[in-house]
Amino acid sequence: MEASGAGTTAGAASNGTGPGDGEKPRVCVIGAGSCGITAMRSLKEKGIDFVCFEKGSWIGGNWKYDNDNGQSAAYKSLHINTSRQMMEYAAYPMPDELPDYPDHFQIAKYFEDFVDHFGLRESIRFQTEVESVEPAEGGGWDVAWAEREGGSGTDHFTDVIVCNGHHWDKRWPEPAFPGSDTFEGEQMHAHDYRTPDIFEGKRVLVLGIGNSAVDIAVESSRHADATFLSMRRGAWIVPKYLGSTPTDRAISGPATRLPLKLQSLGLWLSLKMAVGNPSDYGLPKPDHMPLHAHPTVSQEILGRLGGGDIKVKANIERLDGDSVVFTDGSREQVDLIVYCTGYKITFPFLSPDVFSAQDNKVDLYQRVVPVDQKGLYFIGLIQPLGAIMPLAELQCDWVAELIDGEGALPDRLEMYREIADDRAKMARRFVSSKRHTVEVDFEPYVRKLSKERVRARERAGARPVTA
User: What is the CA radius of gyration of the chain?
Assistant: First the structure.
């Protein structure tokens, strides 16, 4: 069965160098989540032929509640933790009537409206999983796919844009805590959490201090008999508002051009005035200044801690029968442990010889392009201090120009040098953690990628585009 495309294309070049032998670009987009849909819009705007394969039955990926692709981590009460103005696509702003922090049902509808507004739905192959992506002889990529109802096939594409997300492959504590295999209570990963009824009448331990951990701990504290929050290290808790302004908007703009040390000091002072220090609420003192680790955003966790509804515990040492023993020697009887321990970055359809993310580390030029794999691109493989969606939109506009021949990449040596410099900067900047391997600053990354888009067009001899 041949995959259908969208539009026609003139021009030329995969990775800005031409698809070879006069072959017109034909692009495979993997995933119809927040990154896949903006990839389709960018391609359609250029008239590039494409098809999108979506494992599930719906638009929205991680933001579709109970998505039947098995990859959504959305729980029923989930709201975004970046403001809608910072999350929306430039090509399709969110409606003004939405609140500052919409819930996932509103976000999923926004994505559905986006797809219909740009006429993308007919180009999506729903309930069709990409099983393998392999370099083809003579260039391009052979993509093997399988439909849920039994059909299968292999199609050839000049280019592949990977938009399969990085919040779906559960990472459990490694190594597992001693006693995990004989623990008498329940153990689950945050990815599988949906509704708070599972907490009723139980003593619950939430492990982690990221956004999911504090959200789940707050919900548990309203339903469980007792809620404990355990963590390895401290974190800065950032409220959703500073004054009456969403925090991400309050700290954006010209301030992001200041030296990092000044930005960090400014946010530290703002947090100190707004909510005080984390240790004031019983949390461990952070071993870093703000902006040197991904922030934990919550408007509610500090109040629940201050009211005694959540009790802070040290890291887990071992599980013992129906109890958990912590590294400070304390012990608590626990019925349910929720591991908020993040995700592995994986690509089940790619051979490790093609590309892999060992220990969640990825070597990509501008966080998008693997240097030695022509015509392969990764969208949204970033964790910004802000929202992924507008950054993915910018990535896709740049990639569409590379594919169409309006842009060209630099030589391999320059790309490798840029990747090495970026990795060194990250190592100096962020706390060492698998959580920070794909971290970026929102506005600096926008400026950097916008400049690269201009340079790419200059390399290709195309008309300049405004950064």
Answer: 23
